[in-house]
Design a protein that fits this description.
Elements (H helix, E strand, L loop, with lengths): L12 E8 L17 H19 L1 E2 L2 E2 L3 E9 L1 E4 L11 E2 H6 L3 E10 L5 E10 L11 H18 L7 E6 L9 H9 L1 E2 L2 E2 L1 E7 L8 E2 L10 H9 L5 H11 L10 E5 L1 H11 L7
Parallel strand pairs: 1-4, 1-9, 9-12, 12-14
Antiparallel strand pairs: 2-3, 4-5, 4-6, 7-8, 10-11, 13-14
Length: 281
């Protein structure tokens, strides 16, 4: 499939994020004391990605409708995390996302002073998603909800760049085999290609091997990780090029959209790779 459709207001695309809210997301990233909790860091990383999508859709003073965005949390059930006037909506246009953060925080950021020192600067930080870590891991239910959202989307946008679904999780589904709904999800297609499913596994183990976009499951340690491999889509050519550019590594043409045992940097890079199509106009 091509994955070359131009992304514009006539043929927009869709990003749907699935966020694991299980109790273990309270653990620190990589299991290192002092690191942020997985739930908090994933929420912050996702808020930054949404802001980046707002910026990439902005032309002059307008935020143009290049994207629809959805964020589903799964722990105690599966729930849309959009708030404000968007509460209860599964998908929202990027300009409406821009207008409806949960709140705007002021955060202190350390920056270079240009003379070899560091200064603290206050920055505005829009928050669309808050961290949650309670419940189990109903991943199958989350994927099935994604299917129900995207079936009408691909029917309404038959010529568009297909949807990208990014599943951020730290564990194994406890409501069945997620490979089954994942195959159905990946079968949903526009004329430009099938829906892309990427999996980002947030680690609790500081000694675990990190694996970026493998082409086989040979180095994956267990049945759960091999399921993640099978669930994930093969990377489209442009996404593979973006991954090679950001990571500085060579990837196989058959690389899968899986980042396993991701640390802080790995989660950020995976989100950036998954949300940077090269054919935005």
């Amino acid at each position: 499939m091509a994955y070359t459709a131009e992304i514009n207001r006539s043929t927009p695309t869709c990003f749907l994020f699935l966020i694991d809210h299980s109790t273990s997301m309270v653990d620190p990233i990589m299991g290192v004391p002092g690191n942020p909790q997985k739930a908090r860091f994933v929420a912050d990383a996702l808020n930054k990605v949404i802001q980046s999508l707002v910026v990439s859709a902005s032309k002059d003073v307008d935020v143009r409708r290049y994207y629809q965005i959805g964020v589903l949390g799964y722990g105690f059930g599966v729930t849309s995390l959009l708030g404000g006037d968007l509460q209860g909506q599964d998908l929202a246009w990027i300009d409406d996302i821009y207008k409806n953060p949960l709140r705007i925080e002021e955060r202190i950021k350390k920056e270079s002073d240009g003379a070899g020192g560091v200064i603290e600067v206050t920055r505005k930080f829009p928050v669309w998603v808050d961290p949650v870590s309670r419940g189990q891991t109903p991943m199958c239910a989350a994927l099935e909800r994604a299917i129900s959202i995207l079936i009408p989307w691909v029917e309404e946008h038959p010529q568009s760049y297909p949807p990208t679904v990014i599943n951020l999780t730290d564990g194994e589904s406890n409501d069945g085999d997620p490979r089954i709904p994942a195959e159905t999800l990946k079968s949903l297609a526009t004329a430009d290609g099938n829906t892309i499913l990427l999996t980002v596994h947030a680690s609790s183990n500081q000694f675990a091997q990190q694996i970026f976009f493998p082409y086989s499951d040979a180095d994956l340690p267990d049945r759960a990780s091999r399921k993640m491999f099978e669930m994930s889509s093969s990377l489209p050519v442009q996404m593979c090029r973006t991954a090679q550019e950001l990571l500085g590594i060579d990837l196989s043409e058959s690389a899968k959209g899986l980042v396993y045992n991701a640390d802080i940097a790995g989660i950020v890079q995976a989100l950036e790779i998954g949300t940077r199509p090269g054919n935005l106009r």
